[in-house]
Amino acid sequence: MTSVRRLPLVMVTVVVVLALLSTACQRSDTDSGKPGTSGKGGKLVFGLTQEPDVLDPHTTALAVASRVMLNIYDPLVWKDNAGEYHPGLARSWEISPDGLTYTFKLRDDVKFHDGTPFNAEAVKVNFDRVINPATKAKGARSNIGPYKATEVVDRYTARVILAEPFAPFLDSLSQPTLSIISPAAIAKYGDDLGQHPVGTGPFKFVEWVQKDHVRLARNDDYKWAPGIRKHQGPAHLASIEFKFILESAARMATLETGETNIVEAVTAQDLPRLESNSKIKFVKAPWGGMVLNAMLNAKKFPTDDVRVRRAMLAAHDQDTIVSTLFKGIHTPARGPLPPTQWGADKLVEEYKFDLARAKKLLDDAGWKPGPDGIRVKNGKPLKALMITQPGTKMEGAAEMIQAQQREAGILIEISDRDRAAGYAAYSVGEHNLAPIFLSASDPHVLSMAFHSRNIGAGFNRAHYANPELDKALNDGAATTDPPKRLERYAKAQKIIMDEAIMLPIYNQVAVYALRGEVEDVTYEPRAYPVLYDVSITKK
Q: Nearest Cα to 528, choosing from 5, 52, 22, 39?
């Protein structure tokens, strides 16, 4: 029986533990407003870049939701930053020689926040829910892979059966998207579960004030933290408030005044000023998954022509974008995966910025410069629509892409949509360019973004279907031998870039700024902060 397994499938993310100086008065363990004296407890206020859509791990697609849900729910297994797997809600597991059956021995001392017991039936209810089309699962559906069924062997033994081997399965189980929800809450709230999250995690959901905050309170019954944490028992913090502060300058200001204890997404513009403040410290955590990029729609004119897409890729100067907008934080992306992600391929030089090549490609495709510089063919201008939405972290990159493409004679129109309208447009293919990034810790993320089954309802915003690419992605997931997996994913990345179905922009680094009183923040492989061990020190 195996309780800890190592699979060399992911990047190694630097884990940073901060021991910082005290500068601000916080509330006591009871959150009564009186200063704490024990050095533990208190209320932590975390400034987020946007508001989650839902707090249902099976149906959300947003990384910001995962940052909140990591505190509410627990997974069956945990993954550390060295790629090792550790017991979570599952005490141990066995994998059959053919890779089709995973037998989990579950903890027998866990209760959901609503008081109902965690058991094998709860695992079955959750995993069956993910594959039910009525759930409309997003990332969870891709992460669960070729799931077939869960058998309840006994009250605390669950046997998960796959239709075919799936190498990323343990990695998937460690992600917030496959965390375990209370079956009673699923039955009670139905489609409204996302506003009433009930898990087994170290913090319980208290309230969600739309457009303002989500508040969590410590789960005093929590006693099943993984061994990779610094302590056992309930969390140190009495409560956490996630504030939605969309505007970067306002978010940074709240940190400087002490209204927040932690903020995310520090920008290159804010970094120099904040670095001069002795009360503030920083953590930079490499972000696994897919790079920030603009996917090119292969089904809509004029990006349905691979020659146009290749010209756009050649006219794309990510080095200048990064040095202008993100210097000191992010690095230019060369392909679908960042170099810190296990499985990233070192792509050939032909994908570098080359404006002369871009112009020649368009000339050869019959697009001739018009009087205003915009190219024309058969009386139609070479015009493409980029649809952006909040939270895509473009921060001026859309406008720079627009200016660069115009140099090649391509007119990019930018349409800013709210989240719901943006998703709707992407699903039907209204766009030519769609900014996107996906958090992950395995190259299986490529399937989420580029497999043909994910056109429309999934993340394949390129609307690109290619049996050869699908096969490479399928083989990469089904192959358990790491070197062979690398070969499959290298082939997939070569097809993606040859077919020019994305413009890589930057390799993400998650930059968090923390006030000095915050201690013991760590980061899991997707660069999400782990707040269970955190305390607020009083000096």
A: 52
